[in-house]
């Protein structure tokens, strides 16, 4: 697998497309017909080759109104998806409005699933406004900017999250805006010095 930067996008070449990748690419292709989104957290490092498992793919959504969500809900059903949460369309929308997450999977499956949440705080909104395009063959998806993703992983602080942060740093340290990353590290009150992440 090779990574290239062109015109502000990350191009992944010679990647073996896994079942998980196909699941995410198919879902995000549908999703972007309705709303701006950005993938955050664990799947980002898996996308770039880190060998680790995940049960869910975390996706932030720009807030959509109830009517548009209703259309999206109907479309998911038509395309063979279902919500794992035991709520109807109105209940699911209320959960999102309340800052909770809802989960979507393909029919007859539980794992993997997509975890959707409306963007709420400034970090969420920045991630969507400045989303990073990733090209894989003829398809694409959008991820959180690496400059935010690394500090946020350090902020979460579990062993797995720190390992994810280090992995992204090793791949992207020569490409990212380190001044911007320093800003996010200050705002999140984290440091990467103990892990070789020095900006």
TrEMBL record:
<protein>
    <recommendedName>
        <fullName>Nucleotidyltransferase</fullName>
    </recommendedName>
</protein>
<dbReference type="InterPro" id="IPR043519">
    <property type="entry name" value="NT_sf"/>
</dbReference>
């Amino acid at each position: 697998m090779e990574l290239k930067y062109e015109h502000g996008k990350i191009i992944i070449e010679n990647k073996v497309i896994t079942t998980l990748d196909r699941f995410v690419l198919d879902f995000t292709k549908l999703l972007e017909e309705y709303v701006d989104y950005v993938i955050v957290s664990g799947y980002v490092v898996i996308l770039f080759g880190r060998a680790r498992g995940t049960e869910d793919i975390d996706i932030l959504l720009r807030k959509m109104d109830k009517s548009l969500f209703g259309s999206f809900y109907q479309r998911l059903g038509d395309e063979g998806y279902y919500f794992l949460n035991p709520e109807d369309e109105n209940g699911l929308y209320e959960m999102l409005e309340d800052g909770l997450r809802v989960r979507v999977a393909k029919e007859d499956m539980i794992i993997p699933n997509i975890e959707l949440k409306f963007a709420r705080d400034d970090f969420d909104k920045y991630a969507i406004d400045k989303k990073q395009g990733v090209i894989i063959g003829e398809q694409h998806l959008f991820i959180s900017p690496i400059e935010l993703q690394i500090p946020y992983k350090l902020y979460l602080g579990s062993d797995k999250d720190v390992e994810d942060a280090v992995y992204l740093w090793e791949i992207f340290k020569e490409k990212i805006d380190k001044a911007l990353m320093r800003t996010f590290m200050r705002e999140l009150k984290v440091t990467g010095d103990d892990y070789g992440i020095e900006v």
